[in-house]
Amino acid sequence: MKLTVWTYEGPPHVGAMRVATAMKGLHYVLHAPQGDTYADLLFTMIERRDHRPPVSYTTFQARDLGSDTATLFKDSCQDAYDRFKPEAIIVGASCTAELIQDDPGGLSESMGLPVPVIPLELPSYQRKENFGASETFYEICRALTKPMERTPEITCNILGPTALGFRHRDDVVELSSILESLGVAVNVVAPLDSTPADIAQLGAAHFNVMLYPETCETACRWLEREYKQPFTKVVPIGVGATRDFIAEVKEIAGLADAAVDESRLRLPWYSRSVDSTYLTGKRVFIFGDGTHAMAAARIAKYEMGFEVVGMGCYNREFARPVRACAKELGLEALITDDYLEVESAIEALQPEMILGTQMERHIGKRLGIPCAVISAPVHVQDFPARFSPQVGWEGANVIFDTWVHPLVMGLEEHLLHMFREDFEFHDDAGASHHGSHTPAAQKRRSTEDAAPADLVIKDGVTWLADAEKELRKIPFFVRGKARRNTEKFAAEQGLQAISIETLYEAKAHYAR
Q1: One fold for 12-128 and 451-511
Q2: Which of 188, 195, 199, 192 is nearest to 166 (CA)?
Q3: Is 275 a catalytic residue?
Q4: For 55-76, how does the pLDDT look when each residue is reduced to its tens digit (9 = 90+)?
Q5: CATH for 267-416?
Q6: Which of 16, 31, 183, 205 has the fewest CB within 10 Å, making it most exposed?
Q7: Architecture of domain 145-253
Q8: Are the CB atoms for 293 and 331 separated by under 8 Å?
C-alpha cells in the first residue's frame, strides 16, 4: 500500500458495501474502527441516494483494543438484527480491523441469529473494491440460491449492477427493454434492488446476462456449474456490441426469428453526417475499468472513426483481455492503479481527447485536453437525474453525445480565438441584422478618444491601456465577470487606475 491523493478503487469492504447498499432486506455488519465509516458519503453525497447504506459499524476506538473487541462486534451484530430485522446479514472487517483478527464470520455464526449470516473473507491488503463486490455477490448467491423449476416462459437474470456503479440504474432499464422486445422476460435483477428472497429465485431463469464482469463473473460461472445456466459474454456497450449481444441471446434462448427494433438508434447516422466528418481520425486515449475501456476502444475505432493512441485499465484482474484488445489496435496496454503513470502517458502521447474516469477528467483539465467520462470512479455529475444509459441503442446515442460535445466545444473556443480580431466577428462589431445601428462599444470609443493614449475610461473607471488589452484576451463569456471583479478589487485597494498588475492581483485574490 502507498499514500495517494486519488485512488481508482477503494478497499474490498467498499465493494461489499456497494452490493449491500444496492440490495433490500440485507444488512452489512462491518467490524471497523472509528473513522472507517467515511464510505457512507460515497452513496449519500456522490450517488445522491435517498437513504443511508444498510451498514452497522462496530466503530471501536483505540481504548477498546485493550479489552474485548470480539464482544463489541457480537453486540453490534445483535443490535443490527434487533433494529433492522433483515432477511439476511453479511459480516466482515475493514482493512484496519482485519489486523486484530477477531474473525467476524466465526463470531456471528456462533450467535444463532434466526436469519442467514454470510461471512466475507476479503483480503484488504491484496485485493480491492471490484474484487470485494464480486466476492460478496458470489458468496450471497452461494448461500441463498435454491434449486427450482425453470419458468414456463423464457427468462433471464440480469447480474452485476450495484450501488455506486457507472450508470447501472439506467443500463438495467435499457437492457430490460431490449430483452423484452426479443421475447425474453427478466426473472431477477441482482444485486441492484433485489432482496435475499429474489436471490433464492435465480435458479428459475433459463440463462444469465453478465452485464458487468467486474462484479458478477464469478457468480455467473458458479451458477453455470451448479444450475446449468449459460451466461452471455458480450457486454452490449456500443452499436456493434449490442448487435453481437442480441445475436448471442437469440442463440442461447433459441430465438432465431425474433425481430430486432433499432428505430431508437441514431449513432450510426450521426457518425456519418457532415457535422461529424471533422472528428474522423481524432487521437484519443482510453483508460478505465477493463469492461468499459475495451468497449470504448471498439466504439472509438470502428463506430466513431477515432484513432486510439493509448489505452489501459486499473483493475489488474482484467489485464489479460485489455492487453489483447490493445494488441489488436497495435498498442501496448497500460495496466496501473497509479494516476501519475496515467498522467505521464497522456502527457507523452498528447491526444486530442481523453476517454477516462473522474481522475482523467482532472488530468485533462491540467493538460488542457478535453475528457469524456466512460467509467467509474466518477463524481456526482456522472449520476444524472435524466435517463442516461451506456448499454443498448439509447446508450449508443448517449455515448455519441458525451464523446463529441467536448470536441465540439473545443472547436468553438478555437474558432472564437482565431477570429477574435476579424472585422466582422470582433467583439465590438455589433449584430449584422441591426443595419446601421451603432454598437454601444463604438459609442464608448468615441468618448474615450479624448483620453490620453495610455488610458481607457469606461463607466468612470480608469483602465491603463495595457490592462485593457490584456483583459480583451479573456474569452468574452467570462470577460464581464473578470472586469467587475477587477474593478471591485481596485476600489477596495483604493487604486485610482487599473494596471496589468492589478488585473493579475485581482485574479489571484478571487482564485483563493
Answers
A1: no
A2: 192
A3: yes
A4: 988 876 555 554 567 788 888 8
A5: 3.40.50.1980
A6: 183
A7: 3-Layer(aba) Sandwich (3.40)
A8: no
